[in-house]
Design goal:
Layout (H helix, E strand, L loop, with lengths): L8 H64 L1
């Protein structure tokens, strides 16, 4: 005697996936906001490093020019 029960595992799985997706919504928003803030911080740091690099190059160039002119005279 072979008794077959209706296959409800697919239905339960779909319900569980929907529940997980619903719970993940607010967490995804929090992660997105944190990532945006991190990227903004990285951009600020990169900008500061670029400014410092530009200043260092300008100072080095000025010292090189002064050194060249002082050694020729």
């Amino acid at each position: 005697m072979d008794i077959r029960l209706p296959d409800r595992t697919g239905n339960y799985q779909m319900e569980e996936e929907k529940r997980i997706a619903d719970k993940a919504g607010p967490k995804m928003i929090q992660v997105r906001l944190a990532l945006d803030q991190l990227l903004e911080t990285v951009a600020d740091v990169a900008n500061d490093m670029s400014d410092e690099g530009t200043t260092a190059i300008q100072c080095t160039s000025l010292l090189l020019v002064v050194k060249v002119f002082s050694s020729t005279t």
